[in-house]
Design goal:
- This protein is an alpha+beta fold.
- It has 2 domains: 41 residues, no CATH class; 98 residues, no CATH class.
- 34% of the residues lie in helices and 25% in strands.
- The protein is built from 3 helices and 7 strands.
- It has a 5-stranded antiparallel beta sheet with strand order 3-7-6-5-4. The protein has a two-stranded antiparallel ribbon with strand order 1-2.
- It is rod-shaped, with a radius of gyration of 26 Å.
- It starts with 6 loop residues before the first strand and ends in a 6-residue tail after the last strand.
- 21% of the residues are buried.
């Protein structure tokens, strides 16, 4: 081990820098950029959707929607219900999801980060069709189906 310090002042800027004449300083010169690149890559991947994350999230969201009756209405858009189901899956960064469409042709689910889009179609069937309450206040069985590709334009 040398007697050189790990950090020395730079002669022009007077800031502390790693000392290349010290073994630890040399190691830090090599290791610090590698660690920084790893951290930046990790941050990038945690903030952007991958194709696999989107595929998993959409299919798990369909399973979640199919699992139990929900308060829903055929006449109102279901983007919020789909968005909540995708968020429940925990897949992906949780932001940047784009849901467009309507109940007649389905909802196209995509992100800016991926080239793939998915079409989710929802079918709502009242739990108790003979109820005296209006259908808007009733729970519905939701049948969600997913196919790869954008939904056709209406």
């Amino acid at each position: 081990m040398s007697n050189e310090p790990v950090f020395v002042r730079h002669p022009r800027t007077r800031q502390y820098v790693y000392n290349p004449h010290n073994q630890v300083g040399r190691a830090l010169i090599v290791i610090a950029p590698i660690v920084a690149i790893g951290v930046l890559y990790s941050l990038y991947t945690s903030w952007h959707w991958s194709e696999g994350e989107l595929r998993t999230a959409v299919h798990q969201a369909a399973d979640t929607l199919n699992a139990r009756p929900r308060y829903a209405n055929d006449a109102t858009p279901q983007e919020g219900m789909i968005r909540d189901a995708v968020k429940e899956t925990g897949a992906g960064p949780g932001h940047g999801l784009k849901i467009r469409g309507d109940g007649t042709v389905g909802y196209t689910i995509a992100t800016e980060d991926t080239a793939t889009a998915f079409c989710m179609r929802l079918t709502l069937i009242p739990v108790n069709p003979t109820s005296a309450y209006p259908a808007a206040l009733e729970r519905h069985h939701v049948t969600a189906t997913v196919v790869e590709g954008a939904c056709p334009q209406a």
